[in-house]
């Protein structure tokens, strides 16, 4: 477990301008530029009053981010975690697993009675299995990238 990281969790109206810029830059740098996936990142889900934005900084650089979406926003019967991203400079350090552990704790805090469903890139299935997610669909293409639906088992 990484212990020298301070995690921040905010809804959209609590984000500073710099935090918003940094999280959008990190998401675009990875999902659009690195993965060459052109998709509408700004989907209005960020602004929902119950959406939670979880992130951390290291040396003044945002290095990890995810968002938690309330039931009904992505799935009618489930909350969801999405836009899970780790900066290239800290990959392989365990930060991704710490991000998911903290994210799931925030799910329990803000949505204690809800099941988590995700649309995961298929190659990350084992990563999500490690955190209690089980595959519940065949592979499908989302933005031309193989994905699978997964549910968090209790």
Please supply descriptive tags for the structure shown above.
Aminopeptidase; eight-stranded mixed sheet; alpha+beta; transferase; acyltransferase activity, transferring groups other than amino-acyl groups; 154 residues; 8 strands
Please give a structural write-up.
GO terms for molecular function: acyltransferase activity, transferring groups other than amino-acyl groups. InterPro entries: Acyl_CoA_acyltransferase, GNAT_dom. Keywords: Transferase. The chain is an alpha+beta fold and about 150 residues long. The protein has a single domain, classed as Gcn5-related N-acetyltransferase (GNAT) (Aminopeptidase), CATH 3.40.630. About 25% of the residues lie in helices and about 30% in strands. The chain contains three helices and eight strands. Strands 1, 2, 3, 4, 5, 6, 7 and 8 form an eight-stranded mixed β-sheet that branches. Strand 2 and strand 3 form a beta hairpin. It is globular, with a radius of gyration of 15 Å. About 25% of the residues are buried. The model has no long low-confidence stretch (mean pLDDT about 90).
